[in-house]
Model the fold of this input.
Amino acid sequence: MTATLKIDNKTARSLWLQSNGLMQSPRGPLDVMTIIRRLGFVQIDTIRNVTRAHHHILWSRNRNYREHMLWPLLRKRELFEHFTHDASLIPMEFLPMWQRQFRRLGQKAADSDWHRSGLCEHEISQIKDRIRQEGPLSTHAFETKAQSREMWERPPHKKALDQMWYSGELATCHRENFIKFYDLGERVFPTQIRTDMLDHEAIGWLCEQALHRLSFATCGEVQRFWDAMDMAEARDWFFNADLVPLQVQGADGRWNDAWGALDTEARLASEHRPAAQLRLLNPFDPAIRDRARLMRLFGFEYRNEMFVPKAKRRWGYYVYPILRGLRFIGRIELKGDRGKGSMTVTGFWPERATRISERLKDDLDRELYRFARLAKLREVKWETAFAA
Done:
């Protein structure tokens, strides 16, 4: 039995941020695919508050990133789009391990009232035939109407398109102004890697790669990383895998059981010094996606309140955590206006232990202007007090 390794809280924070590409300086040569491979995937999102989430996530790792750099990688088939825990861009070389996810989500979509289109097989075949004959089409190319006016209701053709997209019959060919264009999966996925793996092989790869990117994790954290297997499958892998038992100290001083890969001791022996750079992280950033893990490691409470009624929000609509070194020092609410070329600070909530100073204000202002330039905004305005 391998002896249990103990990882103190400072080291645990360092390992987690290092795994997320947030320890080193966000400068230097840029390779977008290297960043995405390191993260495993990058979540995409429709909301453009200042810039869309996928652009911000990549920019947080390297300030040389610009908004025009991502979508050509989808057209060049270096990435494909599918669902992890949400819509994401995934390195194309991961495709063989993703075949079971096509089957898994395709079946879930077929069984779900949310995705059931109500169209007959002939009507669904007509949608697919149009794409085969005309080439990539967006949902706007079809004319069926939603059956109700409820906020989340979608037209039957959209449900049919998505069901075929989940199963891999269709794939995202490209996006224009964020609008998805569907094409046949066989025309998007390269033939030479459109191979399948046995389920246990795919699950093994997914679990190993999740643990590698998490540095240390519970079974549930590994399962939720890709969200491409159920808990029973993840537990079966944990039972049979060769892992290192760990105890990881939380921000509250308590020790929690976890597991690490066989290279854990080598990771611990490597020195990790955080960059001094203050960073604004996106609400969908992978470093903060697991709110329970965030609270446990950093003692930092955060929730996404975009869909919370305004009167019930604790903070604001689109709020960015502020990371400095190994600590989250607060939250800031921003709103971009591309028409006016400005970004406005509408809320600022420092943590209790954060010392409010002119230096912090200067550092934060510099970061705000850097972030504004990503969205080609010229001006930053404060409509709230910089105070505790």
About this structure: The two ends are 50 Å apart (CA to CA). The chain is about 35% helix and 20% strand.
